[in-house]
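Severity: low
Component: inverse-folding endpoint
Summary: output formatting inconsistent between runs
Steps to reproduce: submit the following structure tokens with default settings.
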């Protein structure tokens, strides 16, 4: 079984060591394994789970909602539909955010074209 040090996990997931400890403390991450010397180690499954959490966090899911999702996940198969609902709701928010960003990008591109144009047009602000 492959195991990873906290430093290796930060490289693989983009989380800081402080965030890993915080996620463990609040229950997002189950109790992490420890060596005989008391040092934390992470399994491949831990890393994969942290990558899911990274995805959810990067896409704007609040920690409270992540906790709800994790609780549902740990409750087993009986909560599958609820988990799917949580993810569908989040995906809809992400899609709306992408649409807003696309509108902003279109506006920026319009201004680039406008300002790149001939003299008087560029001063139109």
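Observed output (run 2 of 3):
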């Amino acid at each position: 079984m492959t195991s990873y040090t906290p430093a290796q996990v930060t490289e693989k997931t983009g989380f800081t060591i402080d965030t890993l400890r915080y996620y463990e403390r609040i229950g997002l991450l189950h109790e992490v394994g420890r060596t005989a010397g008391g040092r934390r180690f992470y399994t491949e499954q831990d890393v994969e789970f942290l990558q899911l959490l990274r995805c959810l966090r990067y896409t704007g899911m609040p920690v409270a909602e992540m906790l709800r999702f994790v609780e549902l996940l740990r409750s087993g198969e009986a909560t599958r539909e609820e988990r799917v609902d949580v993810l569908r709701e989040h995906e809809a928010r992400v899609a709306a955010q992408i649409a807003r960003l696309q509108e902003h990008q279109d506006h920026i591109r319009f201004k680039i074209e406008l300002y790149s144009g001939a003299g008087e047009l560029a001063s139109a602000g």
